[in-house]
User: Which sequence fits this backbone?
């Protein structure tokens, strides 16, 4: 007889789907699901919900981001750099949420990887700047290639030149190849994403550990403040809007910008005196800085500024109003630099001479690698993935026109493999001269999937599955997701006392206020001045709202999460990684956020 | 306030004057000159004390009593100490000394309440209380009373305990000199101490503040459980606070001319004695003093109810912290890991993996 040991968190196999979403598995590929055949193996692993990157259940097509991201992360750990203790991360989807389980290296194999790692990673650290220059070139070339893809409807008849030129092929090739090309470029983008990232985190983690050893009680955010850049490209889109607001007032065109649709206003500005100057600045800012998502780039539902100019325009109007109110909206970069230096020097002065020398070395490495950790986000998630999504929407619109689905959103409810079938359906029906088959299938199927997704999205995720290990040692889990042994303890405690909200002290300060719970970036407009933003996770492009809120609370994220970074920048208290604040706290509740201790109280 | 051989205004105390004014007054002088807000006042120098000893037969009388003293006879020692104190306080101090004290006191303002504190010169000795150095008289008003309290301070060098301590440590009794500080009394709304390290573990990234209502003597003497605030020194953020039940406070009684204990009314007992801004102001002051003296400090401070907000925080004393500062910092047994091998170590045993 076997006695079943009670797990601290439930088994994936015991978690019921939400009512009405029983068939959720049909939305995701087999390799992303917990399968009965591997039950023993999967139950033996600890899985944590990555709601930082996938805060809500996602559509079938969006699995592409999960697949490519995790593959890219893994390949650098296990095949390029041979990170001694860490391979990649296994992933599963459960009820539409993403669960991770890091794959460690067997203790006896770690040693053999060390010399490889030292040689390979060492090469990157030594040649960081020059490798980064070529990285940017590769990424920009990939973005250019994505932009060069165009999807054309298949013609009624092929052009005469195709015949007289003896081409021997038809127009379907550009369509089929274009799709494959876009997937391939997206795949490349994700590999580039991880080329430097884990090394950047490792460099920072090394500095972090050293400082913690010197000053065991030092707040995490103090260490972050020593390395954080103040000129990260992630702040550029927001800074551009501030600049445009200022310019509008200087040129006397602010009043023209204040009301009306974006198109109408832009036309109107063109007609007023000096309006052309402002328009030129607006156009210059758009490319590339409005390639900026209000999400995190992982979802086909993401709204990029450049495709939804009403989003930056709303922020712009807000900035104009604040400027006219006499507020200073500029980021105080000089003060931030001075503050960073002050903090660094004061801690340094408290060390002995030997430690100071080591500190200087590690700080220099950290400051060298850290800009990548922040800036890559703009190039990959915002710019490149934004371009990818735009191309996919063009394709979806084209297929919608052929009758496969109702609007340009339809394709994203299909898996990327199913899209290949649809393209074939279209191509072959066109060649044969028959009707497409998908017309009678996809609209109903999309509706079915849409309904399942809504059910999935209505329930928050379980934070983790099965038994946590005694000690969490996987470095990237700790660094990227803030999942430490302590964090897991907190989730368990929260479960027991049913509402204690402890998280990480993401950004210092204490404040009380009214909560506004946002589960979706579309709801950002509902935020009122002085409210406390509570969300599963925040994205860098939410920056403009940070100027009007008083504090931030997130479900997941460590000291390097976007919320923590931006809050430190804006001087707002933040508690991150609470596990479930966005479910426990309701909009309108009075809450107290203690960013020094990482505690949120419902008052 | 004019300075002379017997009197040194805090503003005139130089580093060279240390031997003449004792540690406490030297510190007040240094703080005054560094621009730290310190209540005004002056030191009655050791020259004045020596003039007193050489006045009439006092020195000879003291020596005579001490010569016959049997230190094993506890009661006898008490009697001898009492005899010396009586001798000291019953004779008038030299005219020129007394006139100098009176003139300096009057120059501070008519009938101004002051604190009169002893300031001994044997600061390097570890037991700071040996010479009656803790002798402090609060809320003293009028020149007559000030002169009397100066005498009391001098006499405190000859308490039985002080005499026994010197005897045990082979310190010649007459070599220890006493200066006395006379300082404007602070009408403290709240006061306390601040250490620029955590006294529990020597953590130098923290400033630990004890605070209570009224004058800070209740905090120093431990008669009240004070509020406790922990401030992160570099970020200047309050990271911990414990608000205690502060049942009584020491406040000035103008009529009696002394500080009196009184019960704190019920509704105020459990309120924080400092606002967050005030906690941070104390922390900034303590940090400034630590930087100035280049070693961790133990600072006495007060908020003066008579001064406007923003200018009402004053330092009463700052002295080097002695417990942790003198401990040898334990060096790590192995050299710090650097470069790639350190990164390998970090990855195989990351900081966050250690259970708190």
Assistant:
């Amino acid at each position: 007889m076997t006695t079943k040991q009670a797990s601290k968190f439930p088994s994936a196999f015991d978690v019921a789907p939400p009512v009405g979403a029983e068939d959720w598995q049909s939305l995701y590929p087999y390799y992303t699901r917990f399968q009965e055949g591997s039950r023993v193996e999967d139950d033996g692993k600890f899985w944590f919900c990555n709601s930082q990157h996938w805060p809500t259940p996602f559509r079938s097509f969006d699995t592409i981001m999960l697949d490519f991201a995790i593959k890219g992360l893994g390949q650098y750990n296990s095949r390029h750099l041979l990170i001694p203790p860490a391979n990649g991360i296994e992933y599963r989807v459960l009820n539409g949420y993403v669960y991770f389980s890091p794959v460690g290296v067997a203790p006896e194999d770690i040693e053999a990887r060390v010399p490889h790692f030292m040689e390979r990673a060492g090469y990157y650290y030594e040649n960081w700047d020059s490798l980064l220059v070529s990285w940017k070139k590769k990424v920009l070339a990939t973005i250019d290639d994505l932009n060069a893809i165009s999807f054309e409807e298949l013609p009624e008849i092929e052009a005469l030149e195709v015949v007289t030129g003896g081409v021997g092929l038809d127009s379907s090739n550009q369509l089929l190849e274009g799709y494959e090309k876009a997937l391939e470029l997206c795949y490349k983008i994700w590999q580039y994403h991880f080329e430097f990232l884990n090394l950047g985190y490792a460099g920072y983690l090394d500095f972090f550990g050293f400082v913690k050893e010197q000053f065991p009680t030092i707040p995490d955010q103090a260490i972050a403040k020593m390395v954080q850049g103040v000129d990260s490209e992630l702040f550029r889109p927001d800074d551009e809007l501030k600049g445009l607001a200022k310019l509008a007032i200087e040129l006397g065109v602010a009043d023209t910008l204040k009301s009306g649709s974006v198109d109408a206003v832009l036309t109107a500005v063109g007609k007023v005196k000096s309006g052309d100057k402002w328009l030129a600045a607006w156009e210059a800012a758009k490319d590339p800085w409005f390639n900026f998502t209000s999400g995190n780039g992982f979802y086909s539902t993401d709204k990029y500024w450049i495709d939804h100019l009403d989003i930056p325009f709303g922020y712009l109007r807000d900035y104009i109003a604040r400027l006219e109110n006499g507020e200073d909206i500029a980021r105080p970069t000089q003060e931030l630099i001075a503050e960073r230096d002050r903090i660094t020097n004061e801690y340094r002065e408290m060390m002995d001479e030997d430690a100071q020398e080591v500190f200087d070395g590690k700080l220099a490495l950290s400051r060298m690698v850290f800009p990548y950790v922040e800036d890559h986000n703009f190039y990959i998630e915002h710019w490149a993935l934004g371009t990818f999504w735009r191309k996919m929407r063009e394709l979806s619109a084209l297929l919608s026109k052929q009758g496969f689905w109702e609007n340009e959103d339809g394709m994203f409810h299909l898996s990327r493999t199913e899209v290949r079938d649809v393209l074939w359906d279209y191509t072959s029906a066109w060649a044969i001269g028959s009707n497409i088959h998908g017309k009678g299938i996809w609209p109903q199927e999309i509706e079915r999937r849409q309904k399942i997704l809504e059910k999935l999205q209505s329930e928050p995720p379980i934070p983790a599955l099965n038994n946590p290990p005694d000690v969490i040692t996987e470095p990237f889990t700790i660094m990227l997701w803030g999942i430490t042994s302590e964090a897991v303890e907190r989730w368990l405690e929260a479960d027991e006392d049913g509402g204690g909200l402890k998280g990480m002290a993401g950004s210092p300060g204490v404040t009380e206020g009214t909560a506004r719970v946002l589960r979706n970036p579309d709801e950002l407009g509902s935020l009122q001045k002085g409210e406390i933003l509570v969300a599963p996770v925040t994205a860098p492009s939410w920056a403009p709202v940070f100027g009007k809120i008083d504090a931030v609370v997130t479900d997941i994220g460590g000291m390097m999460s976007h919320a923590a970074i931006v809050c430190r920048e804006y001087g707002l208290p933040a508690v991150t990684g609470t596990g479930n604040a966005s479910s426990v706290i309701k909009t309108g509740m009075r809450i107290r956020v203690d960013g020094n201790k990482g505690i949120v109280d419902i008052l | 306030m004019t300075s002379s051989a017997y009197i040194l205004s805090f503003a005139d105390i130089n580093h060279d004057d240390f031997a003449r004014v004792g540690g406490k007054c030297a510190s007040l002088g240094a703080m005054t000159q560094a621009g730290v807000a310190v209540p005004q006042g002056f030191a009655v120098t050791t020259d004045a004390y020596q003039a007193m000893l050489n006045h009439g037969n006092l020195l000879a009388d003291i020596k005579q009593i001490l010569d016959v003293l049997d230190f094993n006879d506890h009661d006898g020692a008490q009697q001898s100490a009492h005899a010396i104190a009586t001798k000291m306080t019953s004779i008038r101090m030299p005219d020129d000394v007394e006139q100098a004290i009176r003139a300096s006191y009057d120059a501070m303002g008519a009938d101004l309440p002051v604190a009169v504190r002893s300031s001994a010169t044997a600061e390097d000795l570890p037991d700071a209380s040996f010479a009656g150095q803790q002798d402090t008289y609060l809320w003293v008003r009028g020149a007559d009373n000030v002169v009397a309290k100066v005498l009391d301070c001098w006499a405190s060098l000859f308490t039985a305990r002080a005499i026994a301590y010197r005897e045990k440590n082979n310190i010649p009794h007459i070599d220890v000199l006493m200066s006395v500080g006379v300082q404007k009394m602070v009408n403290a709304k709240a006061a306390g101490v601040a250490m620029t390290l955590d006294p529990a573990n020597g953590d130098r990234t923290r400033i630990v503040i004890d605070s209570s209502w009224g004058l800070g003597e209740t905090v120093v003497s431990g008669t009240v459980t004070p509020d406790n605030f922990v401030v992160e020194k570099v970020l200047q953020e309050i990271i911990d606070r414990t608000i205690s039940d502060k049942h009584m406070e020491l406040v000035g009684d103008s009529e009696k001319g002394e500080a009196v204990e009184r019960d704190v009314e019920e509704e105020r007992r459990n309120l924080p004695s400092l606002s967050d801004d005030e906690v941070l102001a104390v922390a900034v002051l303590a940090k400034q003093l630590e930087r100035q003296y280049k070693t961790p400090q133990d600072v006495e401070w007060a908020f003066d109810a008579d001064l406007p907000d923003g200018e009402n925080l004053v330092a009463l004393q700052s002295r080097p912290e002695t417990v942790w500062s003198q401990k040898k910092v334990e060096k790590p047994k192995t050299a710090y890991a650097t470069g790639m091998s350190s990164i390998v170590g970090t990855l195989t045993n990351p900081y966050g993996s250690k259970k708190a």
